[in-house]
Design brief:
With 336 residues, the chain is α/β, with parallel strands linked by helices. It contains 9 helices and 13 strands.
Length: 336
């Protein structure tokens, strides 16, 4: 374990960045070195709220990207700005951990991955769920055939949010809509489950979607089905207009694994064995769960890697491609 401090810069100081900053305190050797936001006043308030020295707030993005004490950048802006700021960081030679979705479309995600290769700089999409202790344990079990052949995946991510025209959740210009904001977890973890059990890239061969659109035109609610190569069916609901169990269930030929609530940040699961036994699993976060993606990014950067095996570029591109296809279906279904 190296004792050299690892400095992080945050681009986009908001609620998700505050979660990230708190998690940094639980990662050995990590520290928050610099902050930049388009609104300087909000950036200063962010620093004060976390008890940080106001001098860590950079007046210009170039100052943060040029700071030799910043060893990696966390992009936590609204979705529409992810690609722009990730590209600027990569061009400046700064490793990037970018909030999901990495961009608003497959083409931009491909471009960012190409920039990572061109400049020889690390890039990872922040699918933190895949790196949680619980899911690392579940991945081992699935890979070992603990539930036999995976037959189906069921998940929901729903919460009731009154429509507000000014909210980023409903603003098409800022990448609003249920699929990009929360459905990304349903799709990403369905793909993860298939990859764990088939030990091969997940390939969707058909999809169906029923959607309801918000007045602004973004998808307000989606109920979808993905059919993967090999026959696995993944059914999901993501919505801003209803409550949900927010569970993830993996049904296999010889057992079932259920993550009963808030599957994207889960610390517990139930493993139903073929003989009827129900095993409870609990693996708690050291801080809030973000610490594991931070540690993974630091491990890869220190090791000279351009991508993480936990969330490789190929998977980010495939996820973006699937979200593109589903968003297109949402517009057709919502207008019907």
């Amino acid at each position: 374990m190296t004792s050299t401090p690892f400095g992080w810069g945050i681009v986009g100081p908001g609620a998700i960045a505050a979660t990230f900053a708190r998690a940094l305190r639980g990662v050995e050797g990590a520290r928050l070195q610099a902050i930049w936001g388009r609104d300087a006043r909000k950036a200063q308030e962010f620093a004060r709220h976390l008890g940080l020295d106001a001098r860590c707030v950079s007046a210009q993005l170039e100052g943060l990207l040029g700071d030799p004490r910043v060893h990696a950048v966390y992009i936590a802006t609204t979705h529409d700005a992810h690609a722009e700021f990730a590209a600027r960081a990569l061009a400046a030679g700064k490793p990037v951990l970018c909030e999901k979705p990495m961009s608003l479309c497959e083409a931009d995600t491909r471009r960012l991955c190409a920039l990572s290769r061109e400049h020889g700089v690390f890039l990872m999409e922040g699918l933190w769920t895949r790196m949680l202790p619980l899911y690392r344990e579940l991945a081992k079990r699935l890979g070992a055939g603990a539930i036999g052949e995976l037959r189906s995946v069921h998940s929901s991510f729903c919460f009731a949010m009154p429509y507000a025209a000014g909210s980023r959740l409903f603003d098409p210009a800022r990448g609003g809509g249920a699929l990009l904001d929360i459905g990304v977890y349903n799709v990403a973890m369905s793909r993860w489950a298939v990859q764990c059990t088939q030990r091969a890239p997940a390939r969707v061969v058909s999809r169906a979607l029923h959607s309801r659109l918000a007045p602004s035109g973004v998808d307000l609610a989606d109920v979808g089905t993905l059919r993967f190569d090999g026959g696995v069916l993944a059914q999901f609901t993501c919505a801003f207009d209803r409550a949900g169990a927010n569970a993830l269930e993996l049904q296999g030929s010889e057992g079932c694994i259920r993550v009963p609530r808030d599957f994207w940040s889960a610390q517990q699961a139930e493993h139903m064995h073929a003989d009827g036994r129900c095993e409870s699993l609990r693996l708690e976060h050291a801080v809030n769960g973000f610490e594991y993606q931070i540690a993974e990014a630091m491990r890869c950067i220190r090791g000279g890697l351009r991508e993480s095996p936990c969330m490789p570029h190929e998977e980010s591109v495939a996820l973006a491609r699937e979200l593109d296809a589903l968003r297109e279906l949402a517009q057709v279904a919502g207008a019907a």
